[in-house]
Amino acid sequence: NGSTGQAELDSAILENLEIAVPHIEDQEKFITNIRPLIEKVALSETEIEHLVQIKERILPLLLSGKITFSN
Fold first, then answer.
1. What's the pTM value of the predicted model, to 2 decimals?
2. Cβ distance 40 to 46 under 8 Å?
């Protein structure tokens, strides 16, 4: 046990562990397929930040009655 109370991992197990790595062509296909999703997430995060800023500016004005909202 280490100081965290968790069992230590035997280094001999790690040294003999085989890790499967996809061929470079498969990795490139994956990146090609996932890139548009990553870009959409980044765009959504930017939009969320912008909307939060707008909310933070408008909410105090609404609560104070300085601006009103009508249907």
1. 0.57
2. no
Based on the number of CB atoms within 10 Å of its own CB, is 32 exposed (0-12), middle (13-18) or buried (19 or more)?
Answer: exposed
Q: What is the distance between the alpha carbons of residues 2 and 70, in angstroms, rounded to a whole number?
A: 63
Residue 61 structure tokens: 């004005």
CB hemisphere CA count around 24 (13 angstroms): 0
Structure tokens that stand for 8 in this block: 């230590």
Using the structure block, give the residue that is written with the tokens 């909307």.
51
Q: What does the angle CA 24 – CA 25 – CA 29 come to, to the nearest 5 degrees? A: 115
Whether residue 3 is predicted with pLDDT greater than 70 in this model: the reply is no
pLDDT tens string 8-35? 888 888 888 889 999 999 999 999 999 9
Tokens 């939009």, residue located: 47
Tracing tokens 């296909």 back to the chain, one arrives at: 29
